[in-house]
């Protein structure tokens, strides 16, 4: 790089930095939007079911039924509503006052100590299949724990055919927030990186300043770097803010390396900025560029990156589509770094894929940038 090129590049960088600082919308997107989205999604979205209203029907109250019913009252997963008959319970289930019915029949205590055991009738509202599966699992957990403790108190081995010893790896608290927040950081970086840069070139065309740039000795490569560097720094600042909120506000564990996180984030940010610059180069209208950025980057990242929906559960065709989305590899890397640590068998292939995407998008942006008005 000769002295003239370096001087021109410094001038472009200074111009873009001044423009970013004078544009409240860019600062708001970079720093206020992550705070807003993390608060909304972090506190508002949960894949856990807590305080589920459940009707507990006890036909013949006694010490055993009271002990088991107390287990439902002593957990945050259930908000039990005690009823004396199934008619009222079924009516409550139909009008959705409760999500499930736990029915302890009249001979519950008598059959409890028989070899075949005492059955519990569980009726669940299956409208929301995910919540229904969670409720079934929670009830089975309460029942099994109660049986084991009952056997310990009476000195008789509990009549449980299989003894399960659970060990949860990587998210031992089983908090869905620990899984969602890292993925949400990737979604935020997608929105910021693509949306901010999708507007910069279109803004130049709309304001008529691109024509002025075209008649200067500035090369298109220098224009690309001048546009890229300020928003790259802005994106890194937004990333740091999002990670800090995840660690200290939402108490998400972080088991990986800060340096590895920084490198992977930088690669993804370059890919996202490249996507935004490519969109901005092709669309010379800010509104069109913004809409294309949301539809082409944010929505696929939200729906197909594994942020909420498991990619392995998707049809084979959709799984193939996810392989061309950079967000898929960044979400996987973030969730691994936060919850499992530096698992190189996951991080290195994802980082390589992100590097390829960054080169492709930035290369395409450079190729599309020409010193021509048409």
Describe this structure in words.
The protein has helices spanning 3-22, 24-44, 63-73, 86-94, 108-112, 129-154, 176-207, 209-214, 220-248, 258-282, 286-304, 316-322, 326-339, 344-368; strands at residues 52-58, 78-83, 100-104, 121-124. It has 374 residues and is mainly alpha-helical. It has two domains: 3-45 and 175-368, no CATH class; 52-154, 3-Layer(aba) Sandwich (abc type-2 transporter like fold). It has a four-stranded mixed β-sheet, sandwiched between helices. Helix 7 packs antiparallel against helix 13 (326-339), helix 10 packs across helix 11 and helix 10 packs antiparallel against helix 13 (326-339). The radius of gyration is 28 Å and the shape is elongated. It starts with a helix and ends in a 6-residue tail after the last helix. Residues 160-164 have low confidence and may be disordered.
Outline the secondary-structure elements.
Layout: H1 3-22, H2 24-44, E1 52-58, H3 63-73, E2 78-83, H4 86-94, E3 100-104, H5 108-112, E4 121-124, H6 129-154, H7 176-207, H8 209-214, H9 220-248, H10 258-282, H11 286-304, H12 316-322, H13 326-339, H14 344-368
Parallel strand pairs: 1-2, 1-3
Antiparallel strand pairs: 3-4
Helix pairs in contact: 1-9, 2-7, 2-9, 3-6, 7-9, 7-10, 7-11, 7-13, 9-10, 10-11, 10-13, 10-14, 13-14
């Amino acid at each position: 790089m000769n002295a003239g090129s370096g001087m021109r590049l410094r001038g472009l960088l200074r111009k873009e930095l001044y423009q970013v600082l004078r544009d409240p919308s860019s600062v708001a997107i970079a720093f206020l939007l992550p705070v807003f989205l993390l608060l909304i999604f972090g506190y508002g979205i949960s894949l856990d079911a807590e305080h589920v209203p459940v009707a507990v029907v006890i036909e013949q109250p006694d010490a055993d039924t009271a002990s088991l019913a107390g287990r439902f009252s002593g957990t945050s997963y259930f908000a039990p509503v005690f009823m004396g008959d199934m008619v009222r319970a079924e009516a409550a289930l139909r009008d959705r006052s409760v999500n499930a019915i736990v029915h302890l029949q009249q001979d519950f205590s008598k059959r409890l100590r028989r070899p075949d055991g005492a059955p519990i009738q569980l009726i669940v509202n299956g409208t929301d299949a995910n919540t229904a599966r969670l409720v079934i699992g929670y009830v089975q957990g309460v029942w099994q724990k109660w049986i084991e403790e009952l056997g310990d108190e009476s000195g008789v081995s509990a009549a449980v055919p299989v003894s399960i010893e659970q060990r949860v790896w990587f998210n031992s608290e089983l908090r869905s927030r620990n899984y969602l927040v890292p993925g949400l950081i990737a979604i935020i970086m997608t929105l910021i990186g693509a949306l901010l840069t999708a507007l910069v070139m279109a803004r130049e065309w709309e304001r008529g300043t691109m024509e002025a740039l075209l008649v200067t000795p500035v090369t298109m490569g220098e224009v690309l770097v001048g546009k890229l560097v300020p928003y790259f720094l802005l994106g890194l600042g937004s990333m740091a803010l999002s990670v800090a909120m995840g660690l200290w506000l939402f108490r998400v564990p972080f088991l990986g390396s800060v340096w590895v996180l920084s490198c992977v984030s930088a690669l993804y940010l370059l890919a996202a900025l490249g996507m935004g610059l490519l969109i901005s180069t092709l669309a010379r209208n800010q509104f069109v560029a913004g809409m294309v950025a949301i539809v082409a980057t944010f929505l696929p990242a939200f729906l197909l990156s594994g942020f909420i929906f498991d990619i392995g559960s998707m049809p084979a065709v959709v799984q193939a589509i996810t392989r061309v989305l950079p967000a898929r590899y960044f979400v996987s890397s973030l969730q691994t770094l936060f919850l499992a640590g530096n698992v190189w068998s996951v991080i290195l292939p994802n980082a390589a894929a992100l590097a390829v995407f960054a080169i492709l998008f930035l290369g395409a942006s450079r190729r599309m940038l020409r010193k021509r008005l048409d």
